[in-house]
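fold-stage: in
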Amino acid sequence: MKNLFPKSLSGKTLTILFASFLVFAATLGILFFEGSKKTVALTLNGEKKTVKTHADTIQQLLEELHVPIRSKDYVFPRPNTKLKNHQTIVWKQAKQVEIVKDNEDKTVWTTAATVAELLKAQKIVLTDHDQISPEPKKAIKNKMKISIKQANRLTLVDGGKQHQVWSTSTTVADFLTQQGIKLNDLDRVEPSLNETVKDNGVVNIIRVEKVTDVVEEPLQFAVVTQKDTNLEKGKQQVVAEGQPGLASKKYEVTLENGKEISRKLISQETVKNKQDKVVAVGTKDLAYQVSRGEVSGGKELYVNTTAYTADCNGCSGNTSTGINLRANPNAKVIAVDPSVIPLGTKVYVEGYGYAIAADTGGRIKGYKIDVFFSSKADAYRWGARKVKIKILNYINGIKGF
């Protein structure tokens, strides 16, 4: 009995020792296995973590971590890079983003963190006047839609006043709405409201309005002539003086940018009636209507001659005896020195014809006469010449006879 107990105790000890050895070996193996792992610093979509791994490459490590890698994702270093202890790895998952810029649509994959970073990567430069939604500081999300409207520089002319403005509108109508401009019923816009807004274009608003204008205007009187057989032919006499009337006229006036472009008479009312001027016109034949039969027996003399018209400088158109030469352009009249040839004397002028001495002149002295022509051309053609005249009747005698 004494030998059995020690033997049994020895067997247990051996078992314990063997088990302890196995535990030690396993622990030693575990420690060796864990000790052989590489320590790696990871940044996954901005989230930092540290892991230990036996992976040989970066791609194997990411697969161990169940991180899906696509060709559009950002991985640094490259996925096939040999993994080293204490290595730093960055992975950014690419997101799909739709960019709509000035009605042009395109889809991109990006690892940018914000809208601003994406615009920089796409080389899209914005000005302070451009519109973008969502705003640049917003974080990028998968399947995000980014709308960009680039502003155009425009010249706005409103009612004649010019301004330089920026606009992201696509049509003229949108532009006016964006600028807070209201149009009246008669206003015009150039170009038309449905036209596309172009960079450096001009939008011209013509402000049109119609107003009523009431004015008083004179009514001009007419000149009425009456034949008078008691008045010598060529003479006129005012029977009744004319008096202008007065009318109140109502106009519809169209203004563009404050300036009148047209007016239309709507109504008219007579405030004061006009009184026409009445003029008597003589029809009685004048003494200078001479017949050919009176030539015979006349006295002859030679005189120096010039010519004149009723429209000469300082001329009134009326002779000193009252003949209206403008009303009687076919009259045959000569201007004389009354001390040589009395006024009213009938003569025959060589190259001119039958005439009457019915006018005088400051330069007509002695044996000199001035013959009347209705046109300056005829007067110039006559010029200055010496001619023979015949006296057909006698008025108080003629000097030298």
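fold-stage: in (second)
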Amino acid sequence: MTSTPQAQAPEGRKARPEHLSHVVFIAASAAMGGFLFGYDSAVINGAVVAIRDRFEVTSEVLAQVIAAALIGCAIGAATAGRIADRVGRIRVMQIAAVLFAASAIGSALPFALWDLALWRIVGGVAIGMASVIAPAYIAEVSPSAYRGRLASFQQAAIVTGIALSQLVNWTILTIADGDQRGRIGGLEAWQWMLGIEVVPAVLYGVLSLLIPESPRYLISVGRRTEARKVLRDVEGRSVDLDKRVVEIEENMRHERKPSFRDLLGGRFLFLPIVWIGIGLSVFQQLVGINVIFYYSSALWQSVGVNPASSFLYSFETSIVNIVGTLIAMVLVDRIGRKPLALIGSGGMSVSLGLAAWAFSYKTEVGGEVSLPGLQGTVALFAANFFALSWGVVVWVLLGEMFPGRIRAAALGIAASAQWVANWLITVTFPTLSDWNLSGAYVIYTVFAVLSIPFILKWVPETKGKALEEMG
């Protein structure tokens, strides 16, 4: 099967869209949902110890509150695709923006622990929606020659949101003289950490008003004139718009509104491609990356790092993730999705194994916990190989690999599986850590190793293919 001219790698001027800057703005605006995804997921990191002390709960109960957001994530991811097919991609972004803002305010002003958990679930629904709609929308509006890099904006936004949340947390902690429960303007520091998210949530809503609807959705509801205008803006005037509209219409002629039944096939319940998407999502979480995002401050404090330094360690980890993501964004269209995923699996297997080795040197003397200098340095950087590969490539693959007739629904199922796996990792980490921190990282290493044969045997290469070719 051959690709369309627009699907060739951008090696010369002819492959460069006339309105690439406009496309970049559109993709970056949609990826603001990814920013909030990262921000909301990681901002709780700075409040973990304060919430535990404020409500006087055990680590196990606290883990359930933190993981409550993931229940909402699974709900949001499972429903976003169907909602997007009914009301449009942009409307889903706007719904998510409202939920993000409501969750930020509610989480900052809880009157009980269950109330905080409820607002965490609301924020989780928004994260789940954003995790589905951003890659789907970006894939649908991007010229195929640049689609990999534009789709990777999602992961770049996620790690930027994570980093900024840690910087905001550190700034607030500094203002509060290093006390997570210190008072600032009538509220405790941790409440400010959670509440400030309302600012990017509002920005996300504003940006969603400035970008166009997906041309595929517009064609699906009979708005061909608007679809032609969007295609002209994102693919350039030199593109045969009539031909592109016909291509999309022809592809959609064999489609109908996706339903759960469309994902079924054979004796294994789902179609093979859906299982591959689920596998990618689950492996992405079972390597334990979100342990770093949710618990890094508490993790560093558990091995003897003081609270102020633990926040800086978390921020430093986030910066490394951003650099790794930028490198992966450059590589994803150059070397392909499958090779990059394999490089990531090999790298994570080694780095997580090193983390397990480093944490095995954790010692406690007279109530003081510490790691030796070498092992502490290794532990700080060991988990960051994720950003160089799987952090980017999984979202690119999920946005591209499914046939058009099931793309939104299949992406929703895959993202839901990702959130369920995320929940499993999040609620089990405190218990695993108390049992044996090094042992927890051995488990994550095993999953990284198992991802290698999974990629080799089942994951398809989508580089250079138009979305209409996926089948």
